Structure formats: C-alpha cells, structure tokens
Amino acid sequence: MRYVSTRGDAPILGFDDVLLAGLARDGGLYMPESWPRFTPADWKAMAGLSYAETAFRVLKPFVGGTIADSDLQRMIEDAYRGFGHPAVAPLKQIGPNDWLLELFHGPTLAFKDFALQLVGRLFDHVLKQRNGRVTIVGATSGDTGSAAIEACRDRAAIDIFILHPHGRVSEVQRRQMTTVRSANVHNIAIEGTFDDCQDLVKAMFNDTAFRDRMRLSAVNSINWVRVAAQIVYYVFAALRLGAPARPVAFSVPTGNFGNVLAAYAAHRMGLPIPGLVIGSNRNDILFRLIQTGTMKMEEVAPTLSPSMDIQISSNLERLLFELAGRNGKTVQAMMKRFRKRRELTLSPPRYGRLTKMFSAARADDAETVAIIRRVHETTGELIDPHTAVGLAAAAARRGDTAVPMVTVATAHPAKFPDAVEQATGLRPALPARLADLLQRPERVTVLPNDLRAVQDFVSGRVSIAA
C-alpha cells in the first residue's frame, strides 16, 4: 500500500513514513493510492471476532507489510486491553432500529482513544526501529488533545505540544490535558479559536526548515493513520448488526470531518453503508455545504458541543480529492480559492456525488438540551451534547426504517457535566480513576495567535532542539 497527497506534489510514501510525516510536504493530506476491497466473504469471516482481531484484519492492508504482522497484532491487543468495557465499542439499542455506538470507554473517555492508543504504540515501534525521535504538534477542539497526551506521555522518543483554544473547551477536557505532569508533555492555550490552532499547526508543518529541524509529526486527523484506525469501529458495529447481508447507516456528529471520513472509507472498502448522516451544531459549515453545494466560512460561535466549534474541516480535503476524481492539481486550486475567498462552490457533478452518500442536519443548543433530556426520559441513558447532535441528525435524516441507524456516541457525558445537568438535573460523575481530576494542579502556557510565538515556545523546549 502506497500513499499519495491530496495536492499531488508530495512524495509517495509507505505506511510507516506517512505515520511520521503527518501532513504532506505540499500542504496536502495523505490518502491510500487505492482503496483495499473486502468481499462479502471477507466481511462474513470477521463476524464474531473480538475488537482487536477485527482491527488487525481491517488495518493489515493499510500497513502494507511495513510492520510485521506479529508486531501489529501485539500493538493492537495492547492498545485496547485497558478499555473499560469488554466489547471495547459496545452497541446499545435505544429504539426499534436505532442504536448508540459507545466510543467512550477508553482512558480519556472519548472516541479519539481508539486511534491514538494505537498510534502512540506505532510511533514507539517505528522510531525504535529507526533510532529516531519526533516532535508532535497538534491542535484540539477538546478531545484529541487529551487522547494524544495520554497515548504519548512518558515516551522517550517523543515530545508532544498540544494547542487548544483558550477558554473554549470544557473544564474536564482542559484538565485532562493540563494536569498531566510528564516532562515530554506541553500544553499551549491559544488566544483564538480551534481553527486558529489548526492553522498554526499547519503553518509549522509548511515551514519546511522548522519542520525538518524539529522533526515534526502529527496526531491530528491530518495524519492518515488516525483515520485508518477509526475505520475499525464502523466495521465492528456493522458486522454485529448483520452486515454484509444487511446494510447499516451511521449518523456522526462531526466538526473536523475525520470521524465521518473513516465511515466513508469503510464504505469504499465494500462495507454496505447506504448513507452517512452528518450532525452539525450552530457552526454548520458542513450542513450548509451539503444543503447548497457551497462551503462558506463564518465566525465560530461557542456552543454546548465545543469539539464541533469549527469552520475549517481539515479532513474534508480528503473527500474533495475523491469528488475531484483524485486529481491533486484540482484540489490544490480548490483549497487555494477557498482560503482566498473564504468560499467554495462545488460543480454540479461533484455536488451530486457528495449528496449521493451524505446528508446532514443541525441542532442548536436548545435542541441539544432537549434531546439529552428526551433520551434520558425515554431510555434512562445520559448522553453528551455531541452525541445529542448526532441523534438529532439521525432523526431528521432517517431513511428506510428497516435499515439500522447507528449514532456514534463520541464522549462520556461526564466530560460535559454542565450541559447534561442543564438538561436532566443530574450531574454525571467521572469514573473512579478520574475522580480527583478537578483537584489536580494544572500546567499550561497561554500564547497569542502568533506563529513566531508558538514556534519559539516549541523550539525552546523540545529535546532535539540542540
């Protein structure tokens, strides 16, 4: 398996090099040169396998022999051994043919753990083989940061710097990052939005001299390996609901488009997914794109679902690459036009291909609170506000009721206790291992939205700077 950039001008790489590279050198994102295809017999052979066994089958073609099967199996089993549910990613029925896929049983209580617990081990393995080290820089709207820090803390060959928007993540999300005392972990609160944080990370990668000197790598979903690892839970859920004999639809609350892109990848690999529903909050650039064919940047508004408070969805570029017939030059021109004009309109053929697979709905804060309340009253379940947005979208865009609709439950309700308490009167408790989180001392540096200030901070603290 080889990987190409969405913008067409970067070197073609193997899996291990893509892992370490993160962003392509032309500013694009890496994608598989072609999609691996699984037959109905292949899917049937996975039915009944454990989560780790399923992950090995799904990920093996993407790894393409760059890591020995025995090493890959060992790292996968180790990554998911500590999850807090025996199924790892359990399904819970909440209606006649409606399900929640619980992705919050990992160490930081969010779906990002599924990819990052494995990615941390893959980094260790590849760097040990090469006798190297990297500096990871990442941006987070809330959950990626804590999951990345948990996966990379205390690893001898890694320094990790995570940027988050100052005052725009929940207290639990912030403290899961800032209370980690490991010497190789550095938290930066940027005076700006998540989009500002993401732009700073991309700018550091695009400064090739700085990138090479710091040996930068990425854990955001701009890193293809993040997306690849997330494909697994869509396969795991669909097989348990009758695939490949039965199609299964998914509703995904999304801001940066990585999670729903993994579901699209599963579809391209042959999993019978008839449609994907995107859930947006008030920051609804993806909803407007799917409704009108035009992607237009607006100001980011704070909401009860802060991980989706985004106007520039990085992973959408990977879908644009697919819609443009995998023409890197076309994508390069599209992204340049979008950045310059803050607006991009898809051609009718590309818009048609988009809406054939994707639909979308949005929910504001009032609707989010109402859904959290209704789910609790009807099922007894507490859900977080991002999951509520996904459920709103699932209800609004429900197709054939004979097709199971799975909404991705992206975070534990205790990560967003204020929203849950507002809706239900109940304040969800953190698991015992995090019970003292709000009393732990924090360590974070607040910086302006300025590239030089962030680069100076990184270069002054990274272990390889000398």
Molecular structure report:
- This protein has a domain at 87-107 and 224-424: Rossmann fold (3-Layer(aba) Sandwich).
- Helices cover 45% and strands 14% of the residues.
- It has helices at 15-21, 40-46, 51-63, 69-81, 112-130, 143-152, 171-178, 194-206, 208-214, 224-240, 258-268, 285-292, 316-323, 328-341, 348-357, 365-379, 385-396, 417-424, 451-461, and strands spanning 3-5, 30-32, 91-95, 98-102, 134-139, 158-165, 185-190, 216-217, 249-253, 276-280, 294-296, 343-345, 358-362, 405-409, 445-447.
- The strands form 4 sheets. A 6-stranded mixed β-sheet has the order 3-4-14-9-10-13.
- Strand 3 and strand 4 form a beta hairpin.
Computed structural class = alpha/beta
Continuous helix count: 19
CATH fold-level name of the domain at 87-107 and 224-424? Rossmann fold
**What percentage of the residues does DSSP assign to strands (E)?**
5-15%
Number of strands: 15
Helix content: 40-55%
Low-confidence stretches: none
What separation lies between the terminal Cα atoms? 36 Å
Biggest β-sheet description:
6 strands, mixed
Strand order of the largest sheet: 3-4-14-9-10-13
What is the molecular shape?
A: globular
CATH architecture assignment name of the domain at 87-107 and 224-424: 3-Layer(aba) Sandwich
From the structure provided, what is the oligomeric state, counting identical versus distinct chains? single chain
Give the rounded overall mean pLDDT. Answer: 95
CATH top level class name of the domain at 87-107 and 224-424: Alpha Beta
Q: Give the radius of gyration.
A: 20 Å
